[in-house]
Amino acid sequence: MLKPRVVMLGSFYRGFYLLNELLMGEISSQIELVGVATDLPENSFISADKRVWQYSHTQYEEEMVEKLALQNNLPVFKARVNSDEFYSIFEEEWKPDLCLMATFGQRIGKRLINYPQMGFYNLHPCMDDQWPSKYVGGNPFHELMRDKKTYTQVAFHEIDENFDTGRLIKLSDKIAIPEETSVVDMHKITSFAAAKLACNETLKIIQNIREESKV
Q1: CA distance 22 to 98
Q2: What angle separates helix 12-24 from helix 183-214, to the nearest 10 degrees?
Q3: DSSP structural state of residue 152
Q4: Residue-wise over 46-74: b if at least 16 C-beta within 10 A, else e?
Q5: What is the pTM of this model?
Q6: For 45-103, what is each residue's pLDDT tens digit?
Q7: Residue 113 belongs to what domain range?
Q8: How many angstroms separate the CA atoms of 46 and 117, rounded?
Q9: I want to staple 99 with a disulfide (CB 3.0 to 4.6 A). Which of 81, 120, 186, 187 is the partner?
Q10: How much is the mean pLDDT over the chain?
């Protein structure tokens, strides 16, 4: 079986750490990373005012995923993904078998969801309240802290056409929310654990599909 072709859609620290794992972690020898889509906060369609971009951040933090991708000679897309332009790149050039998303400001349409045969997955901060979690949407850390929660978790889940409601694959361990912290801090605190969760579960998905193909 050939190495599965993987596309990552992500930004900020969660996207950066996931991309770093895909490039240099244990999973890197098991996949072919073929493309990256990332947020451009000035684009109105990513709802920057409702997400992490509403908080103080640096130019580097806006560009960190793009810079890491380009340093590793990966093509980067920064416009609307539910568009003929991206469909052409996605289906004719990148041709992913599996897609991973981490802090990405666009809802993914059915055409993209259904393309990768191994699935389309997302990382979303929440807690073990239920699934889908109460803490859906673009700013879950704010909601968790508003409710005075003392910990968070990160869900690795399938993507469907709604926000953060696809089948749950696995929750991370509990990660403490300090009494004095910020949304941006929580992105930083949880991003490495989120990236490891996504890559560990993706390796299991790949291995399971390989085992099934032998039967």
Answers
A1: 12
A2: 40
A3: E
A4: bbbeebbbeeeeeeebbbbbbebbeeeeb
A5: 0.96
A6: 998 898 999 999 999 999 999 999 999 999 999 999 999 999 999 999 999 999 999 99
A7: 5-122+157-169+184-214
A8: 26
A9: 120
A10: 96
